[in-house]
């Protein structure tokens, strides 16, 4: 039974801090999804389903976390037993985070397959993603059966370790493969090279972020098994993955049309046809001639869909 202020602090502070950060990242995800909705209305249905599906999962997770927070600090205030019960954290953290991270990693596996044309690289990442995702779900089931936060370490040690370490390894592999294959696609065209550099930098930053948080979570869980410090990073890990995916989609160039408010986002989209490079589209925009404002000329812009 928890009988001192230190244990109470360990049980409440990570939950409170992690929940606040979770809702903060949820707000960021909502803003990114809002931007995606207006900036890329012509995206393929599968991409739209992916973005809105992740938002639905993350909304459900944040609601469940808020419910646990309310139970611990409001309806269960003063009851020590509420501090050690796992409540619904088994669902909101390992299960939902495992599902979200697997989806995001498989998405990047597809991108790598499109960029490289290699099935082996994509398949390897998919296997890593499924391994860590399955371990996360198993971890959730074991936490649920424990029903006591003090028993999590003994019941879910192996599954938690495989989940978090596997997730970090998969993120690092994705970052390495993306950088390697993108660097090989140098075209010599300044505009295209700028986009490739931007995507490379974003991939490294987001991949290192999710991998670092997963490793911090694993380290706290393994090094301090009698304390709940690992709960804080665990509560935000899923949100980081969702934000990573939507941020990557939103990083594509948006070209406003001079005729209407539609946007063109043909660069860096996931191709559905040729796994290497899709067709080249020519889009014409009217431009006012500086010498005569009554005459219109057109500029043909070639946009290559590579990813």
Automatic annotation (TrEMBL):
Residue ranges occupied by any DUF6534 domain in the UniProt entry: 167-252
Keywords, ordered alphabetically: Membrane, Transmembrane, Transmembrane helix
Membrane-crossing segments per the record: 20-37, 49-67, 87-109, 121-143, 163-182, 202-224
Pfam families in UniProt: DUF6534
InterPro entries with a match to the protein in the record: DUF6534
PANTHER family: CHROMOSOME 1, WHOLE GENOME SHOTGUN SEQUENCE, DUF6534 DOMAIN-CONTAINING PROTEIN
Protein name: DUF6534 domain-containing protein
Annotated organism of origin: Collybia nuda
Lineage per the UniProt record: Eukaryota, Fungi, Dikarya, Basidiomycota, Agaricomycotina
């Amino acid at each position: 039974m928890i009988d001192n202020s230190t244990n109470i602090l360990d049980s409440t502070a990570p939950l409170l801090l992690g929940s606040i950060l979770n809702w903060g990242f949820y707000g960021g995800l909502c803003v990114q999804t809002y931007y995606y909705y207006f900036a890329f209305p012509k995206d393929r249905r599968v991409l739209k389903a992916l973005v809105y599906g992740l938002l639905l999962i993350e909304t459900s997770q944040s609601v469940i976390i808020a419910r646990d927070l309310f139970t611990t600090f409001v309806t269960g205030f003063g009851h020590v037993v509420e501090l050690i019960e796992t409540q619904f954290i088994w669902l909101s953290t390992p299960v939902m985070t495992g599902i979200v991270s697997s989806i995001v990693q498989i998405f990047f596996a597809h991108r790598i397959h499109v960029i490289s044309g290699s099935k082996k690289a994509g398949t390897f990442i998919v296997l890593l993603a499924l391994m860590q995702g399955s371990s996360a779900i198993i971890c959730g089931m074991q936490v649920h059966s424990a029903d006591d936060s003090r028993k999590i370490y003994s019941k879910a040690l192996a599954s938690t370790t495989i989940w978090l370490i596997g997730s970090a390894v998969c993120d690092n592999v994705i970052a390495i493969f993306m950088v390697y294959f993108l660097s090989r696609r140098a075209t010599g065209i300044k505009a295209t090279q700028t986009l490739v550099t931007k995507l490379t930098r974003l991939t490294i930053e987001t991949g290192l972020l999710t991998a670092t948080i997963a490793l911090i979570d694993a380290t706290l869980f393994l090094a301090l098994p009698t304390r709940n410090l690992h709960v804080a990073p665990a509560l935000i890990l899923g949100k980081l993955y969702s934000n990573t995916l939507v941020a990557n989609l939103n990083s594509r160039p948006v070209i406003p049309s001079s005729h209407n408010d539609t946007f063109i986002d043909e660069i860096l989209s996931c191709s559905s046809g040729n796994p290497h490079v899709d067709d080249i589209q020519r889009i014409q925009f009217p431009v006012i001639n500086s010498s005569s404002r009554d005459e219109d000329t057109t500029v043909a812009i070639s946009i290559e869909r590579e990813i």
